[in-house]
Fold:
Amino acid sequence: MLKDKICIVTGGAQGIGRCIAEVFAAEGAKKVFACDMNMDIMSDYENRFSNIEAVELNVCDRDAISAFVTDVKDTYGRIDVLVNNAGITRDNLLAKMSEKDWDMVVDVNLKGVFNMTQHVSPVMIENGAGSIITMSSVVGTDGNIGQTNYAATKAGVIAMTKSWAKEFSRKGAQVRANCVAPGFIKTPMTKDLPEKVIAYMEGKTPLGHMGEPEDIAQAALFLASDRARFITGQLLKVDGGLVI
Ligand code: NAI
Structure:
């Protein structure tokens, strides 16, 4: 479904981002740049997929992003898909949330998405096509106790995405922007949650279990592909019915 496409996935070292990079590579992408700060977990990538390239990139580092995007453009002449997947949590009740934890989550989850999209979208607009997919969360639509910072960023990316859907297509460019809102997914981000929290969340999910990274990757694949060519500005919830 992604034959010949040049794709960038942030937070590609593990969890959802890693699965997206692998699914995109398996679906025929010409090149998938799996970008992350954590290069330890990236080491076996290139042995298994000749079309995945692990790139050390912090989504908060605007100079590094600029150099990376220029490099990709100079080499391939285009970027077809950007997946803004990198994200972190620093949870606490509002009364106890430090300014540092607020700033850190906003810097990565919100400004990091701004940084990447601001650099990549001109390449897509110039080429007249592209698909930008940003990981939101059900917490971005419904909120959650202890996640004021995270909820703000995940709601923020939905509004940015809707703005981009309008802005990037102004001169006829088929540059689409959409969000995916995962529910409760088995990744390193959720692995340390207490059993009782997991049981509670699974109980609230109509399909009765946590999702797999593959469930999110398949949604991202669809939005990235030309099969979703008339879909832009949307939020696709992939949550087993958790938020209806
Ligand atoms: P994860 O913690 O397993 O993986 C996140 C990856 O992002 C890590 O490899 C990490 O090194 C990377 N990363 C963190 N900061 C970075 C930075 N500044 N620059 C580049 N890379 C950076 O997380 P998971 O679960 O795979 O989540 C992926 C996305 O999906 C996140 O945006 C998360 O908020 C979202 N999400 C996850 C849910 C879940 O249940 N796991 C639910 C809803 C949303």
Q: What stands out?
A: The first strand starts at residue 6 and ends at 10. DSSP finds eight helices and seven strands in the chain. The helical segments are 15-26, 45-48, 62-76, 99-127, 138-142, 148-167, 195-204, 213-224. The CA atoms of residues 206 and 241 lie 5 Å apart.
